[in-house]
Design goal:
Helix content: 25-40%
Number of domains: 3
Largest sheet: 6 strands, parallel
Number of helices: 12
Shape: globular
CATH superfamily of the largest domain: Glycoside hydrolase/deacetylase
Order of helices and strands: HHEHHEEEHEHHEHEHEEHEHEHE
Number of strands: 12
Distance between the termini: 61 Å
CATH topology of the largest domain: TIM Barrel
Structural class: alpha/beta
Length: 299
């Protein structure tokens, strides 16, 4: 046994394992995996996934058959959207922020129900001399036209949050068009005018949603920073989250619906904290003129 063990040690000395490189045997560190060149990643607008009807393929697709199984771009727009996912060449993206070196940021507020928080938010914005953008749902605007007029009178942007608060990617082009068009009419009737920005309910979108909104004169706008105020996570948490994640050109999501029960306490601290960092607070209509809208999700 001792003889065999000794022979094994001698063999290891003479013939080191394959994974021991020359650099390792001399004491130098072998290259890390991260140093190995990899294929360059493409922007999300070049390659991604879209929602469409998954091709019906009974057998495994290989080689040239793969191209035949792909869903064409046109089919994503004309066919009903389903919950199944297929890889497609391009995915249209909404606006998440603006590319600029200027220290500017846009505070945006979604409202879909309730009447308590909206006046508190408006009062804070008035006291702090801040202009922002309100994404209003059609039914809320129709129910509370006086609040809509107060928002417009204060000089804030009024944009669209759609009609029924549903995930629009689950609906057909016709139903999406009806949702956006109905909200547009209600907003124009109450506010007199609407900014050309559309934020889909729940931030849910796909190619059909973006194309339909654009055909109706709206650009789809999501956000770069979510305050998570709709979860009511605590004032300190919300303030630290927004101040820690905001960058020049960022679009910040907040709510003035009654579901956001802590916004009236967090908002003054957020405004003061951003200004201490040197940020200027502007509505979306102004932010879009300062830099280039970016269609890449930084979250």
């Amino acid at each position: 046994m001792g003889f065999v063990f000794g022979r094994r040690i001698e063999q290891l000395r003479r013939f080191p394992p394959a994974y021991e490189t020359e650099e390792a045997s001399t004491g130098e560190v072998a290259p890390e995996i991260a140093d190995i060149p990899i294929a360059e990643e493409k922007e999300p607008q070049d390659v991604g996934v879209g929602l469409a009807e998954k091709p019906s393929v009974d057998t495994e697709v290989r080689g040239e058959e793969l191209e035949e199984a792909r869903v064409p771009d046109g089919a994503l727009i004309e066919e009903p959207v389903t919950e199944r996912i297929a890889v497609v060449p391009k995915v249209k993206m909404p606006i998440f922020y603006v590319d600029t070196k200027e220290p500017v940021v846009a505070l945006t507020f979604d409202i879909s129900w309730g009447q308590q928080q909206v006046m508190r938010v408006l009062e804070i914005l008035r006291e702090k001399n801040v202009k922002s953008t309100f994404f209003l749902s059609g039914p809320w605007a129709k129910r509370y036209p006086n609040f809509v007029q107060e928002i417009a009178k204060a000089g804030h942007d009024i944009a669209s949050h759609g009609d029924a608060h549903v995930d629009l990617s689950n609906y057909s082009r016709e139903e999406i068009e009806k949702n956006i068009s109905t909200a547009h009419k209600d907003l124009v009737d109450t506010a007199g005018k609407v900014s050309p920005y559309f934020r889909p309910p729940n931030g849910d979108y796909d190619d059909v949603v973006i194309d339909t909104a654009r055909s109706l004169g709206y650009e789809t706008v999501i956000w770069a920073v979510d305050s998570l105020d709709w979860k009511n996570p605590g004032v300190d948490f919300m303030v630290e989250r927004v101040l820690g994640r905001t960058f020049p050109g960022a679009i910040v999501l907040m709510h003035a619906s009654d579901s956001s029960q802590q916004i009236q306490d967090a908002l003054p601290l957020i405004i003061d904290g951003l200004r201490e960092k040197g940020y200027r607070l502007v509505p979306l209509s102004e932010l879009m003129t300062i830099g280039t809208p970016v269609r890449w999700d930084p979250r």
